[in-house]
Amino acid sequence: xxxxxxxxxxxxxxVALVATLFSLPVAVALAFVLARKTFWGKPILHALIHLxxxxxxxxxxxxxxxxxxxxxxxxxxxxxxxxxxxxxxWTGAALAAGLMALPLFVQTIRVVMEASDSRLxxxxxxxxxxxxxxxxxxxxxxxxxxxLAGALLCFVKALGEFGxxxxxxxNIPGETQTLALAIYxxxxxxxxxxxxxxxxxLSILIAFAALLASDYVNRALQKRLKG
Amino acid sequence: xxxxxLSKRLGSKSFHFVGEAGEGVTAIVGPxxxxxxxxxxxxxxxxxxxxxxxxxxxxxxxQLPAHQRGIGYVFQDQLLFPHMSVEKNLRYGERxxxxxxxxxxxxxxxxxxxxxxxxxxxxGEKQRVAxxxxxLSQPRLLLLDxxxxxxxxxxxxxxxxxxxxxxxxxxxxxxxxxxNRDEVKRLALRILTIENGQITSAT
Lengths: 227, 203
What we know:
The complex is a heterodimer of chains A (227) and B (203). By secondary structure, chain A is an all-alpha fold.
C-alpha cells in the first residue's frame, strides 16, 4: 500500500470517527424528540432530518458550502470571530459525512426507543425520578443497542461518503481526500486500477467488520436483558 | 386524606371523577373500560387532568408533575426496569424514611432475589419486587392497579397476605383497583364504584 493510499485510509478513519462522535448527541436528542414528544411541526422536523437521504449528495454539499463556506452565513461568522472554517478542511469532510449519515443514525435509535415501553419512564417518575434522571437511567440504557447499531452504521456510511464531501471540501490529498475520494482519483489516473482495487477491498473489509460487530454486540445486549 | 374532582377527555370518552379516600385501603371497582386505571393515572400524575383539583393533606397537587407528588404506584404488569438487577430496581426510588431497605427485604422475603434480573423472576416474585420498590420511595399514598390480576391462584395466595399485612406494617393510605369481589372484601375498608367514567357509589 502506498503512502497516498495509507494517508487516505487514516484520514477516512479520522473523519468517520469525528463525524460519528459529533453526530451522536444530536442523533440521540432528535431520536428522543421524534419517539417520545408530540408537538406542532414534528412532520417538518422529520422531513428536514431525512432530507440528506433524499437530496442528491451534491446538492447537500453545495448547501453546506453556501452555509459553512468562508462567505456563507454561518461560515463567515465562524471565520471572523474564531478564525475557524470547515471549507476545504478535514473538519468539513467530517461535517458533510456526519450530516449525510444523520438520517440513518436517528432512524436506528428512534426505532429502538419506540420499541421500548415508555411506561417504564412513567414508573420511574412515580418513584420520584426527574425527567433528566429518567432519560439517563431508563431511556438511554434501554436505547443503547440502537445507539450502538446507529453509531456503527453512521461510521460506515461516513467512511463511504462521496458526493457532499467532494462538493463541500474538494479532493485534497492529505486534507480532505478520504477513501471514497481516493478511489475516485485512482480510477481517473492511468494505471491507478490496482490501487483503487486495494482501497475498495479495504472499504469492503471495514464495512463488513463494522456490521458484524454491530450484530454481535446487539445480540449480546439482548441476551443480557433477558437475564 | 385525599379529595379529588378531576376531569379528562380521551378521544370520544370523557371522565369526571369526584370522590375521596382516607386512611386504610379504598377499593376501586367497576367494569373494564369504566376508567379505574384512568383515575389512578390522573391521581399519580402520569396523566394530566384537563381540569379539576386533587387535594392531598390540604394541598392541591393537581398541577405537580408525577415525580414531585410522592404517590407510589404498583402497576398491573409491574414495569420493573429490565436492565437492572432486583436490588437496583428496589433502590431506584429509595429515600430515607421510616421504611428501610432491611424492613422491605424481610417483609417481602426478597433476600435471595437481589442479584437476579426481572426477566428471570416468576409473576409473584415480580409483584413482590414492584411492591418493595414502590414502598422504598416512602410514598404518602399508594396506588395498586390490579396487583393480582395477571397471577395464577397459587401466586395470588402468595401475594395476598403481603397486601393484607401492608396496612398493619406501614399504614399508608391505599387505593386498590380490583375486579375481584373476594379480594376487595378481604382488603378494603371502603369501596368506590366506577361506571362509565364516573364514580357512581361510595360505600
